[in-house]
C-alpha cells in the first residue's frame, strides 16, 4: 500500500503510492509507523491523493513508551506500515489504576480511549463547541464516566458546576444510585424550584473587591467608600454599648464639622437635619431631648434661628454634640465575627457618607450616592434573598456547608443561575470563585482539598473586563495562573471562545473541541493555542455531534473521540417542534 518516502519537510513526509495500488479514503487520520531499524516514528495520515500520501510526524515509540515530538526524522529508506494494536494502545491508553474510559475511537472500530485522570483533572480544561455539537452531553458524559467507573471511587471530588440554563440537574441528580457513597447537591436561583436550596451568600464573607463587583463600582474612589462601609457594618452589627457610642461619635463629629463651617445658619440646619434623619440613634434624632439648665429642648428646637442669624441654642447644642465625641474610637476595629444583613449594610453606608465628609464634596458625594442607589435597589428586590444568610459562619464553615447535605459529603454541587440576569450571575460566580481560591490557598496542606470549577457558558463570566483596572486583578486569570498548585482547577465550557479572556485561555492545558464553524472562533483558537495545528482545525470542522478533537497533556496525540451518550442526559436537547405544533 505504501511506497517510498519521496520528500520530508519539518513535520510532514510525502509517501509515494505504487502504481496500480487501490487507495481507500479510510486511510485519512489513520496512524502509521516509520521503521528505521529499532527506531519507530509515529505519524498520522493527513492527506491522500492519487499518487502521494502526506503524513504528519507525531512522536517516537521508544520501547513501551510513546514520546511526543520528533527530533530525528526517518530516513528515505524507512519501512512504512500501519500501526499495530499493541502500538496503538500506547496512544489510546489501556484500562488500569488511575485511568478511565473517556470515549471511543471512530477511526479504529470504536476502540476504547483511556485517559490518565491525573493528567486530565489536575490541569485546567476547556470544552468548546457550537450549539448542537454535543458539548453539554460531552460534559455530562465525561463526569459520569469517572463516577460510574467501578474501579475508581472519587469520593473526595468537589465539582462545582455553575449552570447557566439548569441543564445538569437531570444528568447528576441520581448520582447516589450509582454508588451510595456519592451525593449530588443542587442550588438554585428559582424560588419555586422545590428540588434545590436557594443560593444564599453571607455578606460578611465578602471583601472590598466583592462589594465593588456587586455594586458595579467604576472608580477607585468608590473602593474607599466600600472599605469604610464594611468596617462600619461590622461595628453596627455588634449591637453593643460600644457600637452605640461609635455611631453617636460619628454623628457628633459630622454635626460639629458643619457647625464650624462658614455656611449660613439655615444651610447648616438643613445639613444637620439630613444627617440625623439618615443616621438616627436614641441620642441623635429630631425629637431627642437635650437637657439645658432648668429646661429641656428637643433636638429640632435647638436650631431655631434668631434675628442675628444664629441658633438660639447654639451653646447648648455644641456642648451636647461635643459630649459624644471620643477620639479613641477612630482607631477601633470591630472583630470580623459577626453576621450582618443588607439593611445593616445600608445603615453603614449612610454613616459612611457623614463620617467621611462626602456631604460637602459634590464629586465624591455623587459617587457615593451611586453606590447607595445600587445597594438599595438590591435590598428592595428579590435578589436580596441571595444575601440573606441566617447565622454567622466563617469561610471554611461556609465552604463545608456548600458540599454537605444531610450530614454527608456531596461530590457534585450544581448552581442553577438561569433565573437571574447575566450581570448578577457573573458577580455570583466571581464571588464563589474568589471564596474557593482564598480557601484553597490558605489550606495548611496545599492541594489537600481540590475543587473543580465547571463554568457552563463561561464566555459570560471569564472576560476581558474592567476588573484589572479597578481591582488590579481578574479572579479567573489569577485562578488560571495560580490555582493548579492550590488544587483549584478551571473547567471552561463555551460556544464562543473568542469572547473569553486571552490570559485565561493561555493557561489551559487540555482541550475537548466539538464541532465549531464560526471563522472568528476558529481563528482565535488557532492563534491562542500553539499546539492547535491546521490539521486539528480541519478535523473538528467535520465532526459529527458527540465527537470531539482532544489534545493536551492528557492525550498522547491529538485524537478524535466519540463520547458515549450520558445516562441520564442533561436537559440540553432541542425542542420537538413537530410534536408541539401538532397537539390539538
Describe the protein in words.
The protein is of the alpha/beta class and 584 residues long. Helices cover 35% and strands 19% of the residues. The chain contains 20 helices and 23 strands. The strands form five sheets. The protein has a ten-stranded mixed sheet, with helices on both faces. The longest helix has 20 residues, at 422-441. The mean pLDDT is 90.
Break the fold down into its secondary structure elements and pairings.
Blueprint: E1 5-8, E2 12-16, E3 31-36, E4 39-48, E5 52-62, E6 65-68, E7 79-82, H1 85-92, E8 99-105, E9 111-116, H2 117-121, E10 125-128, H3 135-148, E11 159-163, H4 169-172, H5 175-178, E12 184-188, E13 197-198, H6 208-214, H7 220-237, H8 241-259, H9 265-278, E14 289-291, E15 296-298, H10 314-322, H11 342-355, H12 362-379, H13 395-402, E16 404-405, E17 408-409, E18 412-416, H14 422-441, E19 451-455, H15 467-470, H16 475-486, E20 488-494, H17 502-505, E21 510-513, H18 519-528, H19 534-541, E22 547-551, E23 559-562, H20 577-581
Parallel strand pairs: 10-20, 10-21, 11-18, 11-19, 12-13, 12-18, 19-20
Antiparallel strand pairs: 1-2, 2-5, 3-4, 3-7, 4-5, 5-6, 8-9, 14-15, 16-17, 21-22, 22-23
Helix pairs in contact: 6-7, 7-11, 8-9, 11-12, 14-16
Amino acid at each position: 500500500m505504501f511506497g517510498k518516502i519521496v520528500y520530508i519537510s519539518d513535520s510532514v513526509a510525502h509517501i509515494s503510492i505504487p502504481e496500480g495500488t487501490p487507495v481507500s479514503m479510510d486511510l485519512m487520520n489513520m496512524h502509521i509507523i516509520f521503521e528505521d531499524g529499532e527506531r519507530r516514528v509515529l505519524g498520522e495520515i493527513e492527506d491522500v491523493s492519487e499518487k502521494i500520501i502526506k503524513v504528519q510526524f507525531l512522536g517516537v515509540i521508544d520501547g513501551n513508551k510513546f514520546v511526543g515530538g520528533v527530533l530525528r526524522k526517518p530516513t528515505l529508506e524507512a519501512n512504512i506500515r500501519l500501526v499495530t494494536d499493541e502500538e496503538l494502545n500506547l496512544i489510546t491508553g489501556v484500562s488500569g489504576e488511575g485511568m478511565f474510559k473517556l470515549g471511543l475511537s471512530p477511526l479504529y472500530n470504536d476502540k476504547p480511549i483511556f485517559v490518565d485522570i491525573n493528567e486530565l483533572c489536575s490541569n485546567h480544561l476547556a470544552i468548546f463547541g457550537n450549539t448542537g455539537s454535543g458539548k453539554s452531553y460531552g460534559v455530562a458524559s465525561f463526569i459520569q464516566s469517572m463516577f460510574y467507573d467501578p474501579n475508581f471511587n472519587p469520593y473526595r471530588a468537589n465539582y462545582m458546576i455553575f449552570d447557566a440554563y439548569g441543564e445538569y440537574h437531570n444528568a447528576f441528580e441520581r448520582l447516589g444510585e450509582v454508588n451510595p457513597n456519592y451525593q449530588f447537591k443542587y442550588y438554585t436561583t428559582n424560588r419555586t424550584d422545590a428540588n434545590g436550596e436557594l443560593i444564599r451568600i453571607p455578606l460578611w464573607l465578602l471583601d472590598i473587591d466583592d462589594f465593588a463587583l456587586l455594586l458595579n463600582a467604576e472608580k477607585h474612589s468608590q473602593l474607599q467608600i466600600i472599605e469604610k462601609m464594611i468596617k462600619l457594618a461590622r461595628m453596627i452589627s455588634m449591637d453593643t454599648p460600644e457600637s452605640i457610642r461609635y455611631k453617636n461619635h460619628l454623628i457628633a463629629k459630622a454635626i460639629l464639622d458643619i457647625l464650624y463651617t462658614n455656611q449660613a445658619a439655615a444651610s447648616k440646619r438643613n445639613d444637620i437635619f439630613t444627617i440625623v434623619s439618615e443616621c438616627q440613634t436614641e441620642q441623635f434624632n429630631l425629637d431627642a431631648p437635650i437637657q439645658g439648665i432648668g429646661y429641656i429642648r428637643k433636638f429640632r428646637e435647638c436650631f431655631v434661628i434668631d434675628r442675628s442669624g444664629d441658633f438660639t441654642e447654639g451653646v447648648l447644642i455644641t456642648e451636647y454634640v461635643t459630649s459624644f465625641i471620643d477620639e479613641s474610637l477612630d482607631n477601633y476595629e470591630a472583630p470580623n465575627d459577626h453576621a450582618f444583613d443588607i439593611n445593616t449594610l445600608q445603615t453603614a453606608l449612610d454613616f459612611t457618607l457623614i463620617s467621611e465628609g462626602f456631604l460637602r464634596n459634590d464629586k465624591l458625594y455623587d459617587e457615593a450616592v451611586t453606590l447607595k442607589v445600587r445597594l438599595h435597589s438590591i435590598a428592595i428586590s428579590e435578589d436580596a434573598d441571595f444575601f440573606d444568610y441566617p447565622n454567622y459562619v466563617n469561610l471554611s464553615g461556609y465552604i463545608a456547608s456548600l458540599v454537605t447535605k444531610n450530614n454527608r459529603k456531596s461530590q457534585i454541587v450544581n448552581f442553577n443561575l438561569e433565573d437571574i440576569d447575566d450581570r448578577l450571575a457573573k458577580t455570583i460566580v466571581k464571588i464563589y470563585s474568589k471564596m474557593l481560591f482564598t480557601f484553597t490557598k490558605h489550606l495548611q496542606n496545599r492541594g489537600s482539598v481540590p475543587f473543580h470549577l465547571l463554568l457552563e457558558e463561561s464566555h459570560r463570566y471569564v472576560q476581558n473586563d474592567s476588573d484589572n483596572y479597578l481591582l488590579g486583578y481578574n479572579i479567573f486569570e489569577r485562578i488560571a495562573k495560580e490555582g493548579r498548585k492550590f488544587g483549584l482547577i478551571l473547567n471552561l465550557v463555551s460556544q464562543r471562545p473568542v469572547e473569553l479572556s486571552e490570559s485565561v485561555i493561555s493557561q489551559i492545558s487540555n482541550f475537548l473541541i466539538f464541532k465549531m464553524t464560526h471563522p472568528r472562533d476558529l481563528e482565535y483558537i488557532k492563534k491562542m493555542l500553539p499546539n492547535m495545528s491546521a490539521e486539528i482545525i480541519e478535523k473538528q470542522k467535520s465532526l459529527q455531534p458527540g465527537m470531539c478533537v482532544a489534545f493536551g497533556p492528557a492525550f498522547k496525540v491529538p485524537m478524535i473521540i466519540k463520547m458515549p451518550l450520558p445516562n441520564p442526559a442533561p436537559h440540553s436537547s432541542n425542542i420537538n417542534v413537530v410534536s408541539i405544533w401538532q397537539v390539538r
